[in-house]
């Protein structure tokens, strides 16, 4: 039974004797899991996490239309997200994030140890812009599995390869990134900062994360950026594959250029479902093969397990 629960979260700020104000967020819960069914729910959930309630679980119960909404990334440095978020194979559509002066930008901003994101689709109408540490799913991410990203991801001031740049899934990884697909996306940096630009992950952020069984298909990365990872330092990686990766400046791209490979296998032929099955993609319950020639989430619903 879905119970409507009005969450009263007191945000107290004591400065020169002044007290803060209370904000109320109304979100449905089922068995302790927050149910997110529209854009307002998603923003309320982001505010809930930002208020110090990061250890919560949530699911998407419908495709989320974000046109006209200025999304605030879920989880901050001061209050990271620590729970499980199951997209239930739903779309987050037309999400615009325009925070060119802010670090840790994506659908999620900062994920802490224990966070697990799965079954989320960020569609090709989405555009995500941040300063540094910018990812289609998260700026700083822990465990991410079975997610699909398209659209645009841009870092406006990535200073060098040691800084978390732009990446299709997670800019700076702390946990396993597995069985994710970035297709038809544009991943860009700036000012010669291209070494941190990558299709899946820019770099690590603590721990020794694993980047396994991911794929990019028909994407553009910044000149001298990477298909899979911007930096392999202290990362483990296996069985990542890419097809059709080009530079934003196509005239500078050399097919097979190792600069664009970075721990992934390039294939001249078009991808086939069998390639992804060999990587462990679940085409029974999670993924399906689409007419464009790459896998996408089935968009039929799942549950936290």
Please characterize this protein's 3D structure.
The protein is mainly β and 305 residues long. It is built from two helices and 30 strands. The protein has a 16-stranded mixed β-sheet that branches. A six-stranded parallel β-sheet has the order 7-10-15-20-24-27, with no helix packed on it. Strands 8-12-17-21 form a four-stranded parallel β-sheet, with no helix packed on it. A hairpin with a 5-residue loop joins strand 29 and strand 30. The longest helix has 12 residues. The radius of gyration is 19 Å and the shape is globular. The N terminus and C terminus are likely disordered.
Distance between the termini: 18 Å
- The SS-based structural class is mainly beta
Shape: globular
In angstroms, what is the radius of gyration?
A: 19 Å
Strand content: 35-45%
Total beta strands: 30
Oligomer: single chain
Count of alpha and pi helical runs: 2
Please give the share of residues in helix: under 10%
Which regions contain 5 or more consecutive residues with pLDDT less than 50?
Answer: 1-23, 301-305
Mean pLDDT: 83
Biggest β-sheet description:
16 strands, mixed
Q: How does the SSE layout of this entry go?
A:
Layout lengths: L2 E8 L11 E9 L2 E4 L2 H12 L6 E4 L3 E2 L18 E10 L2 E4 L8 E3 L5 E7 L4 E4 L3 E2 L2 E4 L1 E3 L2 E2 L2 E4 L10 E2 L2 E4 L3 E2 L2 E3 L2 E3 L12 E4 L5 E3 L2 E3 L2 E2 L14 E3 L2 E3 L2 E2 L17 E2 L6 H6 L8 E3 L5 E3 L8
Parallel strand pairs: 3-4, 4-6, 5-6, 6-9, 7-10, 8-12, 9-13, 9-14, 10-15, 11-16, 12-17, 13-18, 14-19, 15-20, 17-21, 18-22, 19-23, 20-24, 22-25, 23-26, 24-27, 26-28
Antiparallel strand pairs: 1-2, 2-3, 29-30
């Amino acid at each position: 039974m879905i119970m409507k629960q009005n969450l009263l979260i007191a945000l107290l700020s004591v400065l020169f004797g002044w007290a803060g104000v209370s904000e109320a967020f109304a979100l449905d819960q089922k068995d302790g899991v927050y149910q997110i069914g529209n854009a307002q729910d998603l923003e309320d959930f982001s505010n809930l996490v930002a208020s110090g309630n990061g250890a919560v679980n949530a699911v998407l119960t419908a495709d989320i239309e974000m046109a006209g909404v200025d999304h605030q990334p879920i989880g901050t440095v001061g209050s990271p997200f620590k729970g499980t978020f199951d997209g239930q194979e739903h779309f987050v559509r037309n999400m615009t994030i325009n925070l060119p002066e802010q670090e840790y930008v994506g659908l999620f901003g900062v994920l802490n140890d224990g966070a697990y994101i799965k079954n989320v689709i960020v569609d090709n109408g989405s555009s995500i812009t941040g300063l540094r540490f910018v990812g289609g799913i998260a700026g700083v991410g822990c465990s991410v599995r079975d997610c699909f990203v398209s659209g645009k991801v841009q870092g406006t001031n990535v200073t060098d390869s040691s800084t978390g740049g732009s990446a299709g899934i997670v800019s700076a990884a702390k946990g396993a990134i597995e069985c994710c697909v970035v297709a038809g996306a544009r991943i860009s940096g700036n000012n010669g900062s291209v070494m941190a630009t990558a299709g899946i992950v820019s770099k690590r952020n603590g721990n020794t994360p694993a980047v396994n069984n991911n794929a990019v298909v028909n994407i553009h990365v910044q000149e001298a950026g990477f298909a899979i990872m911007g930096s392999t330092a202290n990362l483990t990686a296996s069985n990542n594959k890419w097809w059709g990766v080009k530079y934003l400046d196509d005239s500078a791209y050399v097919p097979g250029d190792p600069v664009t490979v970075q721990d992934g296998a390039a294939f001249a032929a078009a991808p086939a479902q069998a390639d992804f099955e060999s990587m462990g993609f679940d085409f029974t319950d999670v993924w399906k093969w689409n007419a464009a020639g790459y896998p996408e989430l089935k968009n039929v619903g799942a549950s936290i397990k």
